[in-house]
Design brief:
10-stranded mixed sheet, 10 strands, D-Maltodextrin-Binding Protein, domain 2, 13 helices, alpha/beta, 2 domains, single chain
Length: about 325
């Protein structure tokens, strides 16, 4: 009787394992969380999912999101793919910083893309010369759950400010996306537009035209303070060639844009996703030329410090960038 029971348990376990692996292999719908309107992530995410749908014969969707929130939804299994940053995904996997001790161990690295540059602009005619001058102003750091919002909080902290201290001094903090943030500045209702995104960014170019803007620098001494708070961020320059309003490079903080994937996506499908996207890279250049030109299969592991999905790793071994 014991032998029969044991055989039955083993048979059920094998059936369950087979069913789970078969379900993963037969996945027919792929969900991506990208970014807000006005940035690079959303249009590139839409283009990527269109390519995968066309080439792999799989149904896809692309929805708005933010770097921190995307880690959470992929980690919880509500999305299969998400856009983020390498330092954010490291924090997510290890339960650090904004993830408050909750480790998202189902998150895997799929590919690194281009640098994510933190950029803050203020109205050209304002008297704001430094982040310290934002102590009683109306700032827009991004939506809650955006990586840019988390970085804005760190940079302000390096200058001795917090969202609460700004409010207490009579200022205001609005958590809205890029398009709404730009609208607030155009209408004269905000003093600082903040974003971590590609450089140049279309929304900032638009703000250069109206109302006209200046960039705030994160000076080297404050860059060091930011790195003490978040070692995953790196000093970087906004090149003067990026925007017409610049006549010199502007020091700031940066990270690396990446795409994450759930560990529950099958190895075969993850392999096909990476191989297919890189095979159609020129098609993505039509959406965001500079961002894609700065991305390359040889940079696919740049800045990454979490496990790479085995399916993606297989492809990277084939092209000689992984052991």
């Amino acid at each position: 009787m014991k032998k029969v029971t044991l055989l039955l348990v083993l048979a059920l376990a094998l059936c369950f394992t087979f069913s789970a692996s078969q379900a993963a292999a037969d996945q027919k719908f792929l969900r991506m969380a990208s970014g807000p309107e006005g940035g690079s992530w959303y249009p590139l995410g839409s283009a990527m999912m269109s390519i995968l749908e066309r080439e792999l014969g799989i149904s896809t969707s692309n929805g708005p999101g933010g770097g921190v929130g995307n880690c959470k939804v992929v980690g919880a299994g509500r999305m299969d793919l998400g856009w983020s940053y390498t330092h954010t995904t490291y924090n997510a996997y290890n339960g650090l910083s904004e993830f408050d001790g909750k480790k998202l161990e189902d998150v895997r690295h799929l590919m690194s893309l281009y640098p994510g540059v933190f950029q803050t602009v203020v109205p050209e005619k304002s008297d704001i010369k430094s982040y310290a001058d934002l102590k009683d102003k109306h700032i827009v750091p991004g939506k809650t759950g955006f990586t840019g919002t988390a970085i804005a909080e760190l940079i302000l902290k390096a200058y001795g400010l917090t969202f609460d201290s700004i409010r207490q001094a009579g200022g205001k903090v609005s958590f809205v996306g890029y398009a709404d943030s730009a609208a607030l500045m155009k209408d004269g209702h905000s003093h600082a537009y903040m974003a971590v995104t590609s450089c140049p960014q279309a929304t900032i170019i638009d703000l250069e035209f109206r109302p006209g803007v200046r960039f705030l620098a994160v000076e080297p001494e404050y860059q060091k303070k930011v790195q003490e708070l978040e070692p995953g961020l790196t000093p970087i320059m906004i090149p003067k060639e990026a925007y017409k309003s610049l006549d010199e490079d502007v020091p700031t903080m940066g990270t690396v844009t990446n795409i994450i994937i759930s560990k529950n996506v099958s190895d075969d499908l993850a392999y096909k996703i990476v191989k297919t996207l890189y095979a159609h890279w020129d098609e993505l250049k039509q959406v965001k030329k500079q961002a894609i030109e700065e991305s390359d299969p040889k940079k696919a592991l740049l800045g990454n410090n979490i496990p790479v999905h085995p399916g993606a790793l297989k492809y990277y071994r084939e092209i000689g960038i992984a052991d």
